[in-house]
Amino acid sequence: MNTPDPLEWTDALLLGYPAMDRLHEEFVAEVEALRSAPDDQLAARLSQVRDHLEAHFGQEDQWMRETEFPPRDCHIDEHAAVLNSVREVQALLAQGDHLQTCRGLADELARWFPGHADYLDSALAAWMFKRRHGGKPVVVRRTITSGEPTA
């Protein structure tokens, strides 16, 4: 499997629920720090990713339960599966030379996140925003292009 492009925080990932957007921006930074870490720092970086995910998923799971988000079970189960994978790779890394397994996990997290945010987290963000404000969030995304200006 080929390596995904860097996971970068852009306006395309904004969901319009600021507390969730902050968690997601932190996640992106943690995953990219893991992906770019030298071998001797992988274990420490993976621990940071695990710590972040425990807090991140814990917060989202709490929001889903508190607001009685209808598809919460599926979403919570996905969080648990991802966190379980991180913990399994962490255990393998502690046992010995599993650097490629760890790097593979980092790439999978980078592949997984945009779809998860776009489908599951966006529905949760809209649900919470509607309950709090009575409507859907308005998300303003900047379109930044490079190259020649258009005429």
Taking the sheet with the most strands, its summary is: none
CATH topology: Four Helix Bundle (Hemerythrin (Met), subunit A)
Order of helices and strands: HHHH
Number of domains: 1
- Can you tell me the residue ranges where pLDDT is under 50 for at least 5 consecutive residues? none
CATH architecture: Up-down Bundle
Give the class from helix and strand content and strand pairing.
mainly alpha
SS element count, helices: 4
Q: Helical amount among residues, as a percent range?
A: 55-70%
CATH class: Mainly Alpha
Radius of gyration: 17 Å
Strand residue percentage: under 5%
**Beta-strand segment tally:** 0
CATH superfamily: Hemerythrin-like
Q: How would you sum up the global shape?
A: globular
What is the CA–CA distance across the termini? 40 Å
Layout of helices and strands, plus pairs?
Layout: H1 18-36, H2 42-66, H3 72-95, H4 99-133
Descriptive report:
This protein is an all-alpha fold. The protein has a single domain (11-133), classed as Up-down Bundle (Four Helix Bundle (Hemerythrin (Met), subunit A)). The protein is 68% helix and 0% strand. The chain is built from 4 helices and no strands. 23% of the residues are buried. The mean pLDDT is 90.
